[in-house]
Amino acid sequence: MMTAQQLKNSILQRAIEGKLVEQRAEEGTAKKLLKDIKLEKEKLVKEGKIKKSKPLPPITEDEIPFDIPDSWEWVRLNDVSISGLGKTLNKATDNGKIKPYLCSINIYWNGINFEKIKTAPFNDVEQEKYFLKKGDLLICEGGDAGRSAVWEYEQEMYYQNALHCVRFFQNISPYYFLMCLELYKNTGVIDKYCKGVTIKHLVQSSLKEILFPLPPLSEQHRIVAKIEEMLPLVDQYDKAYSQLTVLNEKFPQDMKKSILQYAIEGKLVEQRPEEGTAKELLKEIKLEQEKLVKEGKIKKSKSLPAITEDEIPFEIPDSWEWVRLGEIASKIGAGSTPSGGKAVYLDAGIKFIRSQNVYNDGLRMAGMAFISEEINNKKQGSIVQSKDILLNITGGSIGRCALVPDDFDIANINQHILIIRNINEMCRYYLHKVLISPYIQELIMSVQVGVSREGLSAEKTKNMLIPLPPLSEQHRIVAKIEELMPLCDKLSKTT
Length: 495
Known about the structure:
By secondary structure, the chain is an alpha+beta fold. The chain has two domains: 231 residues, DNA methylase specificity domains (Adenine-n6-DNA-methyltransferase TaqI, Chain A, domain 2, Alpha-Beta Complex), CATH 3.90.220; 193 residues, Alpha-Beta Complex (Adenine-n6-DNA-methyltransferase TaqI, Chain A, domain 2). The protein is 37% helix and 17% strand. The chain is built from 14 helices and 23 strands. It has a four-stranded antiparallel beta sheet with strand order 2-10-7-8, covered by helices on one side. Strands 13-22-19-20 form a four-stranded antiparallel beta sheet. The protein has a four-stranded mixed beta sheet with strand order 17-14-21-18. Strand 15 and strand 16 form a beta hairpin. Helix 7 packs antiparallel against helix 14. It starts with a helix and ends with a helix.
């Protein structure tokens, strides 16, 4: 699907190829128009109003980029106009009356910007030489070289040497040439005529030689009228295209969120009675928890508040249970930054995971910091183990959540990350999906603590409500999510 700019370029290209309006025999030919221009030039030279211009290079077959109608002609700009740069300002020598003048900051494709009109002294000779007449075409010499506008006003105005002023013979339409220049600018043609590498300049000698397809006079005006008729439609297309682009960009992400939300509401896969219930799973988790406490591997946790009806955010299947995260986790705790901060980081050693390493799709090792074994041993409570879940709890990345790989060796974390360790480690895959779901992400944003900085406490995290399915259903949910997410990514690439 083409952009609005591509559509406009396509219309302008058809226009200058003679395919936008029909040719009419009664309107004559461009050849006849060029003869009239030649006669007008000779007359003005004879009267001393213009100087005789140097001959332009002949147009060769190799230069012609496309075919045009038989009634048209290929011309160089100064075949049909005279042009010149404006006044060079010099505070030391300038004298005369203070006059307003235009420079490149005033010239735009959609017209003249009058907000930053400058003034300078212009003597009598300069006033006559650099005075703008209605219908003059102004072209930027440097900066955004080639950017153009037509002077279509009656007020007194002059121009300085950042601008070329092109004045046409025989009432040729400056708007037709403005249209050509806009297309040339958009498609890189102007750049071929510019000098310079880092900053492009459209010098006089190059400007005069730019090649244009010239229609008969009346056809020029009909082309311009047709373009002006079509531009509002292009603007409408642009708005529609922009809205569609936003929708296309947003849709895959919204789709991912919907999939995750459906998953944790029990709507993504069917329930199977033979897989048991979450109540049975909770009994197993409780027994495992008691065993770990008895063996001294974990401390007995404080009882969490009972779940009330008012807290439940949405309905779940009968075989599921609402639980607090702390009921199914053996550990929920944050790390800390070692004394000395970044000064104690090493080039190698024990990995020290920071929030910049934690992403929903996993841990990213780029920019990983390291600490010594001595510091790690002092921070026993925040040592990361394989199969942990890490959750960012502060800053702009709050809510990002990563599964620690099964083959992970060892690491530690800073205070911006929370370790969530499951009693039943097989629940970790489903729990990770819950934590990155819209439900929990919105909850994280709503329960932030701290005045000066976003933050989520371990206590608030322990009290989060989690919709818990039977274990086999958890596995099927995760498998279905992982089947659907790549399709969303594929959709994102094709829009």
